[in-house]
Amino acid sequence: MFSKSKINEPGHKADDTSKPAMPEPSKSSAGEYKPAATPKAKPPASSLSADLHVTGNIKTTGDIQVEGTVEGDIRAHVLTIGESATIKGEVVADDVVVNGRIVGRVRGLKVRLTATARVEGDIIHKTIAIESGAHFEGSVQRQDDPLNGGKRQQPAPQAPAAAPTTAASND
């Protein structure tokens, strides 16, 4: 009724047609070896250590962890402000987590102020979370697209109406 299969025995070899197809490395016309394309792993967050003081703007499409001091604007995908960090400028990111101090405007799709956060400035967000113990001084405004900087399309400015002129003179 039940018989032992010989496929799993050490000496048995299956025919080569049953092998799963593996992508083969490609060769360019010059004969160079190129490995098969593999998806790139997400790079780790860039880190600014506590002893670093940056004067100027920082812009990245990746993630950044700030522990030092930045005097300038920061734009990133995910921005984490460490407990020892101080930012003086505007912060713009998809996801902002504040553990330290920011003096300036914060714009983010998701903004989270932890219990150790100190923010002096306006927050423009899509979603926000403020933990008990966080210090915040400023205004909070919800927008569907907080990253665009409030630049809404406005109608073209009209030419100012000509002011009436008077030809009277006092002679």
TrEMBL record:
Residues 34-49, 153-171 have a biased composition (Low complexity). InterPro entries: BacA/B. Belongs to the bactofilin family. This is Integral membrane protein CcmA involved in cell shape determination. Pfam families: Bactofilin. Residues 1-18 have a biased composition (Basic and acidic residues). Residues 1-49, 135-171 are annotated as: Disordered.
